Structures
1.
Amino acid sequence: MLNWRGMCAGLAIALAMIGSAASQSIFHRGAAGDPESLDPHKTSTVVESDILLDLLEGLVTYNAKAEVVPGVAESWSVSADGLVYTFRLRKEAMWSNGDPVTAGDFVFSFRRLLDPATGAKYATILYTLKNAEAVNKGRAAVDTLGARAVDDRTLELTLETAAPYFIAQLAHQTGLPVHRATVERVGKDFVKPENWVSNGAYMLKSFVPNDKLVAVKNPKYRQAASVRFDQVIFYPLEDRSAALRRFQAGEIQYYNDVPTDQLKFIRANLKDSFRLAPYLGTYYFVFNTRKAPFNDARVREALALVIDREFLAEDIWGGTMIPAYSLVPPGIGNYGAPAEMAGKALSPIEREDRAKALLKEAGYGPGLKPLTIEIRYNTSENHKATSVAMADMWKPLNIEARLVNSDLKSHYALLREKGDFDIARAGWIADYSDPQNFLFLAQSDNKGLNYASYANPAYDALMQSAAKEQDLGRRAAILRQAEVLFLKDMPFIPLMFYGSKTLISPKIAGFESNVLDRHLTRFLAPAP
Amino acid sequence: MIGFVGRRLLAAVPTLFVIVTLAFFLIRLAPGGPFDLERPLDPAVMDNLRKVYGLDLPLWQQYWAYLGSLLRGDLGPSFVIKDFSVREILGRGLPVSMLIGGLALALATLIGVALGSIAALNQRRPADVAVIGIATLGITVPTFVVAPLLQIVFGLWLAWLPVGGWNDGAVRSIVLPVMALALPQTAIIARMIRAALIETLASNPVRTMRAQGLGRGVILIHALRGALLPVVSYLGPAAAQLLTGSLVIEQIFGLPGVGRYFVEGALNRDYTLVMGTVVLIAVFVLAFNLLVDILYAIIDPRVRHD
């Protein structure tokens, strides 16, 4: 098959010819695309997250297993009411130009994130901070934000309401600091390599869109001694098949996606270099609950019951997804086992009978009103195949389904603007590992993300009481009640949980699969 | 001739204006905007963003502002690739696309003319059949099949060349993309030359030359001059297209060119980037059409522009 040894020899010779580079250890890291910005406050996707977590470090950060651990903050304490967090910053935390990382840097960064003039698109995530929403919507001055520097090493953050997931939220890229003096001096050009100041393990050396982003080791990083790669190069590779070929040729050593249609080949040929692991993301379809007959919970339950999720996950998604009977994925923090859809234990025939009975009650079926459904999905081979399969699974219920496809932007514009649709594809990837980050999707006040327009006061009340609950065990129980209610009402049909699909070269040591699929380069090393 | 060129350049200004205007309003007709993501934004955040980028102004004001900055040579900031202005993005990518496209064009012309001539001179003989076969294959097999095949054969099996990447323009890195891009063009040019040359070889002037006992080489040179005319008119738009990059080639080989920006800009509703590429492509098309007309006059003395 492939001449690995020959290629390795060729690579070694090529590297040796570059001379000085030969003594440097370089990690060639494939990425799903270009970062839309290196300004942490203007980004939202995992592509930027992967790069920024190498370049900057927040109050808290991730370890190799993507657990939240202390970062610039060495410790913190929480007031009894859960509203005031006091962080103690590390003495050795330093920017790459030698400046200490101070509490003032974080106050500046949080204010910058929420200042409407910044145009930060993911500012909502930190609406947990006191007055954050008012500041971001221009109703309050920026300095009223609940972030205060007590002294250079003590930072006090005040919350709007208690939020047990606050520490997890801070690990998101929006919680990363920017170097105040540079931002004030050069404005938005602080992201250019010549201006860039890091407080993370790596410093930005160069960035050419569609080509590569080069980062070099930051000698001033607090744990520089343990950072093993001298350089990390991010290559934006949107074509997954091309990325696979470049991985096979040894040109990249890591990539976090694979072409699903080549899974058989990948499994047979790449063996241990291919890793599948659960990922905190849910793939679902939403009902338009403002529209008949989808305003009827019986119809929604019937439609949800008869979908063969195992078939979708195994046959359509090639085993890269996990069948889902709940909205919250397993393995999430602060929760335990998620609740499950009531009909899960039933056999396919029992499910079909139950669905037919439910539809009959609602007035649909043979001799009653016919039911036609429009399934909307955004452009993708797999979404299309999933929609076709769903239409097929609904056929025995005398339901005629039509497929409507549109490009990603149009699809989500329609959902956001509450346009007319019956049932539409959507998905959610966790920002932080907490069930609230999934269950809030169905809150009636979540205008942006509750595409189903689901509004159940009992559900909202449960979510609010969970937010006030300090005891994590009791909180988990309340959230589970909310999920049970959600699954009974079924405003969305959870179909599958995402899996992370990793290509990792045997030349790289220290890689650990984790539910957030976050892998900071500083935990990776050349294999011995 | 100078008067002709001057008139054509003047006529290009209103053409460009119409193109810019049409494109500006057409892209705004598409549903959604640059800030619609898979995870939608809070309306307040969306308002903040629209304000920061001036999208909250009435459309005609935005249009007016865009025309103004365009005249100053400012193509605006990109909405989606936020750390760069459109001018920076196109300025960095264009040399890459022009290099790959220019080399592909040169290669395609050289090989295409050679193959086409061989076929025409050996009409209905094995060489002709072989060229037509290759040419048909070159036209019908799409680039998104050829490019991965080249990667697998030369990058993985033989391991002679890198599978992808730009590597700061290293010769090894541009061989495969140039080949993949040149293949369909070579095929088209070969077929055109063959057809045109067969016709020219049967024309009266060539027959006269033959009757006068001129050598095969001399006849071919004269006949080629006539046969080149359709190719030149094809090469104008083809060059404009090749030099402004190819989405497929750039994505598969991971090249930092500008070919992807038109499609990606449109899909992302990155209004300024789409406009920038529209202007760029329009300028190239206008320039190469003018160039073709000038070349025509040089090759064919019957064409007079004055």
Note: The two ends of chain B are 6 Å apart (CA to CA).
2.
Amino acid sequence: MEAIKNILTVMQDVVSHPGQAVKDYKKKTGKAVIGCFPVYCPEEIVHAAGMLPVGMWGGHTQISQALTIVPSFCCSIMQSNIELALKGVYNDLDAVIISSPCDTLKSIPQDWGYAIPHIKVIQIVYPQMRKITAGIEYLKSEFKRVKKEMEAISGEPISDAALQKSIAVYNEHRSVLRDFCVEARNYPITITPAVRHLVIKSGYFMEKSRHTQLIKSLINELKSLAPENWTGKKLILTGYTAEPDALLDLFTENALTVVGDDLAHESRQFRTDVPAGDDPLYALAQQWSLVEGCSLAYDQQKKRGQMIIDMARETGADGIVMCMMKFCDPEEFDYPIFVKEFDAADFPLLFLEVDQQRQSLEQERTRIQGFAEMLRMKG
Amino acid sequence: MSEDKMTSKELLAELTAKHYHDAIEGKKRGELVAWSSSIAPQELCETMGIHVLYPENHAAAIGAKGGALPLIDHAEAQGYSLDLCSYARINLAYKDLQNCCFENVPLPDLLIICNNICNTLVKWYENLAKELNIPLICIDVPYNVDYEVTQERIDYIKAQFLVAIQQLEEICGKPFDYVRFQSVMETSIRAAKAWNRATAYANYKPSPLNGFNLYNYMSLMVCMRGREESVKFFNILADELEEMVQTGKTQLPFEEKHRIMWDGIACWPYLGHNFKTFKNHGINMVGSTYPSAWTLLYEAGDLDSMARCYSAIVLNLNLQRNIDLRVKIIEESKCDGAVYHLNRSCKLCDFMHYKISEEVYKRTGVPYVFFDGDQTDPRSFAKAQFETRIQALTETMENNKAQQNIK
């Protein structure tokens, strides 16, 4: 248990102090650090340049200056990122990469260029017709642009071999995270919803092979323990993010564990590997064509709901929680379809609105208590 | 009455009625009906002889006729957030109810979108396709990060035209007629030129054009811009406006004291109120982004040029080009002020606009105001706020003019 505690302490340290993690990396390596906005970012290119890509998924902060850039009905992650940038929190970043899969994320990078000119913004647009060859070729051209920008920052070319190596590092990281999510189900007392989230989230602020090693160690330590008996109910989380920790602790308080997720912040990041291929940028672009069940990836069959139902059945989940990021159009459009599909599949669904700036979680406490009671009554 | 002797107003009413009537009757005969986004390449469906209806136009008409709320209530009861586009909410509810205060249009057999105006369309139409179990043709037009449309984007869009043609051939069970395609493109370009010619009359000072009439005219550009009738209509309109200029007349039922640019989509449920407020202050809306939105000019037969054209739509431009476009509108139409509609439905109409308005002001010195509203959800607009903002703008415009006279 001590070893597990030590691993989690290392993870908690970077999650609590990402700014320090950035400073430490720059001091140690002399290399640049690149901020990666949600949801998708070709981090492998940054990694291949020897730089540290760090996730920028907002955080709780008092919003004041951001509202001079965007109206109040902009999603709270973007409000936080702009606010923190205007306050100078991101001044150690050498650039930010922002992809534009929704209308909000088309606008934010453009605003950034004017409002935060001292941190270079690299805006890319993933295609929606992502399964046709022309879509993959187009995305490759966007990634080429990112590569060129990274080379300009580092002053050195990025070789294909370096890209292939980084792709391998990232694929291994994805694979290990998937293993962790499976293993975590056997240890619902040790790996609480908040701990599960911490393990995944800490990867946003660490060089990936280092994070992979930590998770491998964690899995080994867990396997040395006897599986834990769980008498509470099991949940699948879907949505954009499930934060803050206090929200996840409400699940624990109500004897609810997380057995799987479809969160953009979590599993959607690591459930699709980059396929093998001689041309690394093409392979990276091909990965996007393989993504399924994401609100940001065009799918006229809308397979996402069925994928969540399948996950719930495979994991023995009792209910599904929609963590709805306020003002997130893509997620809000998927929800009414879920309501019908989950109802038909007899999976209870809890709707929680996620807003990073929320001061109190009392409303969520009541809703989660009610949901837990309902699941217990259902048997 | 023969079309030759009709005024633009009479012809518009007849063509609009015909547009809906043809689709309704065609559906009864078993002909294909498509629902399409407003600036999709209609040339493809027009070539195939498919009846095309435009949910955005339909929703706007429902909103203008005061019938939005029952549909919005239904959509929200289905789980659609009130923060989503109200056109989408109205249309997704209409899909269930098929009953509204405007034309009860038939459900579609296929869907076609082009996300050059927003990505909301992708999600909205995904849901339609899923629930109606019909094919969806998507022309994905990536947002223009750079000032110009890059060749990589053009190549990708052009390839999708060919995919869309293949899909249409399968759906229609007949080959695509490239000869007719050429002719439809030529007609569409002539319609765009005629539209541009007519709307440019707003630049005259005083203007013979009542800016609010654009809201009526544009429905034709949305619904029928591949048809000869549109070319004819906009040429008749332009001729009427030319005659007005020659005779010193105007469509405007009051004296034009101030000229403004309206930024964003109309506030359809409050069109009458907005117009009266402007009228009280002698304001004519002579500038807007609408004219350029449907001035779709490209080389007929050149798919590169067509791809570039469909990509360089106002809502798909980068911030710098958005600023330049508005400066041009303000200068060409000689605006004294600008009104920015902070539209709860449309994040692309809002999220760059604080910066756009600041920069446009720096370059033009033309005062501006924002107001909170929504294109069709009547709950997101307050008459008092709008009136106060317009009054404030009027005072500033009057002060500016007084100071210019002193100098």
Note: Residues 131 and 277 of chain A are 16 Å apart (CA to CA).
3.
Amino acid sequence: MNNRIKELRARENLSQLELAQKVGVRRETIVFLEKGKYNPSLKLAYDISQIFNMPIEEVFIFDNKNH
Amino acid sequence: MKKSLIIYVITPAVFFLSVLVFLLLNFDGGFQDIISLVSVLLFFIFSIFMGQDKIRSINNKEPCEDELSKKITTKASSMSFYISVIFWIALLLISDHTALPTHNLIGSGVIGMSLIFIFSWAGIKFFGLKNE
């Protein structure tokens, strides 16, 4: 699964820490997500999408090849 | 802040430092002493790192634990349990062919298990938890 968190965060002028605080996780989790080292829970994915006012599928792109 | 500093950094640091000093005072240069020293030093570094991590989280006003950290701990625990079972079997097989005293065998097993957990945790932190 790929995601556009880094790109959207830059567009919204949000730091990793600010985004982490908004969704109630540690900054490390945002780092892992941006590096593609972790796939979030549905709740976290939903919360992040809500911050960017976008549907989940536009923030997180499911890549079937990696499964 | 002060309370968390005491819980996460000072207590484990004092504990491991005392063990380290005790081991150094009774150090006779044997292989077993070196293994014990290195292990305690690793635990000391690990506890300091964990404590620093928690304090950084508190300072940043973010939770000390979240879904990722819980998953890393769970995965490291399950992985280290599996490896530890194999480690104990190997240790028992080795002990059949050597004159290893029981307390040394148990000590090696416990230190081995702790080290396996630390390495599993570090490995998962480094490689991440993809598609899980």
Note: Strands of chain A lie at 2-3, 60-61.
4.
Amino acid sequence: MKHFHVSYFNNKKAQLKIQQMAFVLVALIIFLAIVALFYFSISLSNIRKTASSLQDEEALEAVRKLASTPEFVLTTHTCSNCIDLDKAFSLKERRSYDEFWNLDFLQIENVYSEEKNECDKANYPNCKTITLIKNEEIGSPKSAFVTICYWTREKGGYTKCELGRIYASGKNIDK
Amino acid sequence: MKIKFKKAQEEMVGFVFIVVIIAIVGAIILGFSIRGNNTLVQESKDIHQFLESAMELTTSCSISYEPNYLKLNELIKECNNGLSLCISGEDPCIVLNKTFNNVITKSFLVNEQANIKGYEFKSIYSTNTISKEIIIIYQGDCSYSARGAEILIPAYPGTISATLKLCYG
């Protein structure tokens, strides 16, 4: 009888120990799960950030690629990012180019210019912007820095390059 | 009863000890992973494009005759050489300083109230043996996070690196 009592109590103690161990393990797993959740939420937000910045970079490149198309590129200098503003200005009047780029909005801005107005035959090149395409719904245009160059008659005439921005929006840019 | 109580206390201390160790290890791993992702200066495509475009713009300095004005990258080279003055009599480095300040203020809104608190433009000439600072132009507070870019200009026998850092609050 005595032997039975000792064995019974020992068994119960062992069970308690196992229960304790199980509780500790469960607590540890919950703790580790919380830490892992925290870590993954941070790394996921970083991935999202990287994806959105990559998308932005892609849009920037797409906008900038426009500058190196034959319709805009300056051929007298070896500069792939230089826009020939005289060429761009001459395209402004040509309606046949409206569907050419498949864009909703296309504008070239002279960052350097103190003027605020749109370029026309009367004020060119002393103006701020050349808007080539402006549809009714233009969305949110993306922009990229470019160099804009034009012929000036000052000092006997030379090609003057200034800092500009090219703005574009449309399916080709936003995708 | 007393022995049982002491044993329970010991187990509690053991459990807390394990939790604390795991928490410390987790915090260290997390700290390293976060620090690894956020470098001090983030590379920016926009600033890279800005630098590339700015280097091509015509300055007011010509060395040989007017209107053979230097481009900004040529002006940096001229400032590095330090051999000649512009026809106007100005030092190429002073023209460089003025031109770059003007370009930056026209392109980005930089002040304490704006998103961009300051900027730092640094140009360094280096060869295999030497490294020489050409010019540093800065404005505002640059102690917080920054976005920047670097471009290289060939200047035989070495290379000139031009770095621009825009500092955000």
Note: The longest strand of chain A covers residues 158-169.
